[in-house]
């Protein structure tokens, strides 16, 4: 799962690296358009990704035939939400202008956003089937499919951006189109594994293509809080990002570059989060919580070890890392100076990210999604209120806003760890309610 998520990080990283070869405006626009797209689909993606926990719980309970039915219900939801997604997307595209972005940046952000939105069904379908394979412990399938998708994406995106190999030069639209095509390719690879004869027979795949009210109700009951958590977290983060970009193009480019390096820590940890969700889910399904402490200890050891190494790397080489994205022939010194200061904050919160993702993976696998939703929504909304006050009312500079963001992540990590150390999430009565259809 770490390799799989790292492949995704590499794909986004190279997309923005290609954008930097045009100018800083394209880097900032790709970040704004990409994050806004994620916010638009995040509620549905958060619900559908709960397939990891559901499939793991059914597998732990020995009910293998119910595992692929989770996929069917997820694809039904992905198709059903398309009209609403288009409506939401049409309104979300106005955010760029409302946040005071320059007209040239707004035009680029909208182009990137709308191409990604056109491929939303493929993105949600991929999320569903990848979550399913993670839940049944076939994570090698996820790795192979995602890595192959990235190997298609990188050269294709380069060709579509700059117009090589006989393809038109589409600029920022080419970056988004390459992502959509690569997502479709990954779905096709997943389908090969899904309909493989051995897998098909073991899980009764061909009998799963029907509406299952019980599974869908569990999907909504447990997955909807998870989706709301993701949506509100992503929405408030996106609004913070757009607010920060109102400082100017240089500030927006600096943030885009810092978050690009942040993905080297955050996205692999999402792989750990998914793995932990799957393992805890299987123990919940089997009614055996005796080994959960071993899973938690191992996950924290791996996550903290990785984040400490990467945080040190971010501090020591912060200026060099910013200069990787320098546009040839342009003065990049202002962006490097600001970004280097922001990299110190990044190195500060990488351990908080590790704690948040491991703790939330455990709690999500155990079905404690309502608590996660309420806590995450409250902290993220407070963060956005503080950011509006800092940026628009007090008119403080970008570093004040940045350190307030860092403090929010540290506080969220402390609250998640407090919940994890308690015993309410693992009580037998609550776990029995989680498994009820």
Automatic annotation (TrEMBL):
Keywords: Antiport, Cell membrane, Ion transport, Membrane, Transmembrane, Transmembrane helix, Transport. It is found in: Cell inner membrane. The keyword Mitochondrion does not apply. CDD domains: MATE_like_7. It comes from Parahaliea maris. The chain crosses the membrane at residues 34-58, 70-92, 112-135, 147-169, 175-195, 222-244, 264-284, 296-318, 338-359, 371-390, 402-421. It holds the Pfam family MatE. It is a multi-pass membrane protein. Its main location: membrane. One of its GO terms (molecular function) is antiporter activity. This is Multidrug-efflux transporter. One of its GO terms (biological process) is monoatomic ion transport. NCBIfam families: matE. One of its GO terms (cellular component) is plasma membrane.
């Amino acid at each position: 799962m770490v390799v799989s998520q790292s492949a995704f990080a590499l794909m986004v990283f190279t997309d923005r690296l290609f954008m930097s070869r045009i100018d800083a405006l394209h880097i900032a626009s790709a970040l704004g358009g990409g994050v806004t797209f994620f916010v638009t689909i995040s509620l549905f993606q958060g619900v559908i990704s709960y397939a990891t926990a559901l499939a793991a719980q059914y597998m732990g309970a020995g009910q293998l035939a119910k595992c692929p039915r989770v996929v069917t219900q997820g694809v039904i939801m992905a198709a059903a939400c398309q009209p609403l997604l288009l409506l939401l997307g049409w309104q979300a595209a106005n955010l760029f202008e409302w946040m005071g972005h320059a007209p040239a940046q707004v035009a680029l952000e909208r182009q990137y956003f709308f191409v990604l939105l056109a491929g939303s069904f493929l993105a949600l379908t991929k999320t569903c089937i990848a979550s399913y394979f993670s839940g049944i412990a076939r994570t090698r399938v996820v790795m192979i499919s995602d890595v192959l998708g990235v190997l298609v994406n990188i050269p294709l995106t380069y060709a579509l951006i700059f117009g090589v190999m006989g393809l038109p030069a589409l600029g920022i639209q080419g970056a988004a189109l390459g992502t959509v095509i690569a997502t479709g390719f990954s779905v096709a690879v997943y389908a090969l594994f899904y309909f493989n004869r051995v897998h098909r027979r073991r899980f009764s795949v061909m009998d799963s293509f029907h509406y299952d009210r019980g599974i869908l109700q569990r999907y909504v009951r447990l997955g909807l809080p998870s989706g709301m958590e993701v949506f509100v977290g992503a929405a408030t983060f996106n609004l913070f990002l757009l607010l920060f970009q109102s400082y100017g193009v240089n500030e927006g480019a600096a943030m885009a570059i810092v978050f690009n390096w942040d993905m080297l820590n955050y996205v692999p940890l999402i792989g750990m989060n998914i793995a932990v969700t799957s393992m805890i889910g299987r123990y919940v399904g089997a009614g055996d919580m005796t080994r959960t402490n071993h899973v938690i200890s191992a996950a924290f050891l791996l996550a903290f070890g990785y984040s400490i190494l990467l945080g040190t790397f971010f501090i020591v080489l912060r200026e060099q890392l910013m200069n990787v994205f320098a546009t040839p022939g342009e003065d990049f010194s202002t962006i490097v100076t600001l970004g280097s200061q922001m990299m110190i904050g990044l190195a500060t919160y990488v351990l908080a990210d590790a704690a948040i993702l491991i703790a939330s993976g455990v709690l999500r696998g155990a079905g404690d999604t309502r608590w996660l939703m309420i806590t995450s929504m409250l902290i993220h909304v407070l963060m956005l209120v503080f950011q509006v006050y800092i940026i628009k009312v007090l008119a403080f500079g970008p570093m004040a806003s940045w350190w307030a963001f860092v403090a929010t992540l540290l506080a969220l990590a402390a609250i998640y760890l407090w919940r994890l150390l308690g015993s309410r999430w693992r009580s037998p009565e609550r776990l029995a309610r989680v498994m009820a259809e």
